[in-house]
Structures are given as C-alpha cells and as structure tokens.
Amino acid sequence: MQLVTFERHNEAQGDRSLERERSGASALGFDSLEPVNLGTRRLGVLIQIDPEDDAVVDLNRALAVKLAGNDAGAPEAEADSLLPPDMQTFLRHLPASLEAAHTAHAFALEALSRYDGPDVRRAGAVVPRRSVRLCAPLPRPGKIIGVARNYALHASEQGQRKPPQEPVLFLKATSAVIGPEDEIQIPEATHDVDYEGELAAVIGATAREVPAAEALTHVAGYCIANDVSARDFQNVRGQRFIGKSCDTFAPLGPALVTRDEIQDPQDLAIRTTVSGEVLQSGRTKEMLFPVAEIVAFASRLMTLEPGDVLLTGTPAGVGQARKPPRWLRDGDVVEVEIEKLGRLRNYVRERR
Ligand code: MG
Q1: N or C: which end of the chain has fewer CB within 10 A?
Q2: What is 153-195 written as a DSSP string?
Q3: How many Å lie between the centroid of ligand 1 and the Cα of residue 244?
C-alpha cells in the first residue's frame, strides 16, 4: 500500500458540500459525521479514478463513512481508534491499523465504482488530488538515524581508504523534514550544499536487540529520502550534526510504501538527478550494510520505535566528489527516484 500524508487546501471539496447537503445525506448514514478540519494532516492513498481524475482516499474518513453506514454508534471515534488519521499514531497501531487501511481503501474504491454506493466524495472520504498538498509521509519522525558511507564507491569518493567495519550512525534533526512539494532552502550561513539520494526505512515495530534475520519484520515500509548536507559544516568545520540538520534538509516521500510491496529492499535501482542531469545511479544491493544489518546493529545499542526513520546511505556521485564540485544552487530541482517507491522532487531556494 502506498500511504501518503496530505493536507486539504481551503478549496477542498467534499466537506463543505457535505455541510451544504447535510439534509440529503441522512439516508446514506453519514449525515452525523463532522466535517474534517481544513489544514489538518491526514493519512491517505493516491488513486486514479480515470486518466483525468486523480484523487486521494482519506482513509480514516472512509472508514468512518463505512462504519456510519453500518449504524455504528460513534463512527468517528471508532474510526480514530482502528485507523488513526496521522501516520505516527498509525504506525504505533500496526498491524491492525494497516488491515483497517486496506478495508477503508477497498470500501472507497467499491463505493466509487457503484452508482448506488455511498457518495464518498460528498462525505469527504475521497478528495481531488488538486485540492490537497502532499506532506512528508512521516512529517515528524521519532528520530532520524543516518548511515555514513554505506556504499563502497561513495566511501572512497569521500576519501575513505578502508570501508567501515560496522555501520557508522549519526543523528539528523527531525525538524529538517519536508515533503515532496516543499523547497530545499539553503541558509545564508552555508554555501556548499549537497544532495544524497537514499532509501529510507521506516520502523513499524519496536526493535530492541533483534537479530538481522528478523530485523525486516520491524520495518513498516520504505520511502525515498534526500539526506541534504552542508559540506562546509559537516567536513570543514567538523559539524556533522548541524550540517545535516538545517531546516528543510530532510525531504521524505512521496509515499510510505508498505513492506509487503517491497520483496527485497536490497534489489532496487536508485538514481538522483539535479536539474535534469543524472548524478547518482546505483542499486541498493551495493550497500555495505543492508537494511537488516543496520536495524540489527542499531537495536543492540538503542531501542528503535515505530516512526523512527533510517537513512541507509547514498551511492557514489555526490556533488562534493565532482570536479568542480556540483553544489545545489537557487532554482535547481533535485529528483531522487527509487524503483517501486516513485520519485521525490524538490526545488532549491537560496535564502540570501
Ligand atoms: Mg547520507
């Protein structure tokens, strides 16, 4: 399942028309549902109804509509407990929440396909794609753990003679997270800002001292990340934390693709382009420490919790290693693509 976090624009349809036509909705069972507040982040799934009609299923809302149709006493409260509307809480309620998400998704699709089905658009359970803004699937992870130099060619382009003997972990501030429709903003204090296209693994079950063989069962799914890095701070000034943690330096998205859709996270093509030029191209099988080993290693030292994100390292081809270096500049567009996970695209803005 490809889960997204989205916000409704002011012009979002659905809820206001529900208000307007409230009286006519009573026969459909969802007349008593309160409208969804605009501007709140919601959990959804992107769907295409026909080639001209992209939409988003608001999963929590769809479940509430289904429950209302079953004459449930308090459909919204029940939907909130079965299928929390925000990703962080959703992950804490796995696997039951994912099962409820599949139920809600199927309900919405079936309702759309039937002329006599409940009007899920009017109920605000299906909203036009153009009326929402996609956020990072996980707008505020618990923690973001990065792995340094996890691809051999990248390790050597970074001047490392010997590959690391164990995963080298670092922390990146969660306040740096932005979504697929946001800009990477370069602060005035830094100049040498670099891209790092990466596979991100999202923890879905508490992991403490788990063996590598079981580690992937603690992963909820995967998304694309760009581990944007201010090299002047990270390297020249020895300030890795702040060099990795400037506001907007952790684009995530576009969707969290659940683990069942990714048979092998070590068999995915990964590619980064900057303003159309392919600068990184590799496969996740080139990782020195695969996702399972990173989870196992980290979990021997600290508890990994649902909603934590692991950035698994970047292939060779970063801007710093190029001659001359290819730093991100105002107006650039950075696109990271990973097979089965889609494409994460962000524009770059210099704050000068
Ligand atoms: Mg990195």
Answers
A1: C
A2: HHHHHTT-SS--SS-EEEEE-GGGEE-TTSPEEE-TT---EE-
A3: 9
The mean pLDDT values, 10 residues at a time, for the chain of 352 residues are 91 49 47 77 92 92 93 88 96 97 97 91 92 96 96 80 90 98 96 97 98 98 98 90 97 97 97 98 96 98 98 96 95 98 97 83
Shared domain check, 214 and 105? no
- CA of residue 196 to ligand 1 center, whole Å: 6
CA of residue 127 to ligand 1 center, whole Å: 35
State the residue range of the domain holding 153: 144-350
- Indicate the pTM of the whole model: 0.93
Q: 182 C-alpha vs ligand 1 centroid, how far in Å?
A: 20
Q: Number of structural domains, the chain?
A: 2
User: Same structural domain for residues 109 and 128?
Assistant: yes
For residue 197, report the distance from its CA to the centre of ligand 1, in Å.
8
The domain spanning residue 273 has which CATH number? 3.90.850.10
How far is Cα 265 from Cα 284, in angstroms, rounded to an integer? 7
**97 and 158 co-located in one domain:** no
3-class DSSP state of 69: helix
Q: Are strands 184-186 and 342-350 parallel, antiparallel or unpaired?
A: parallel
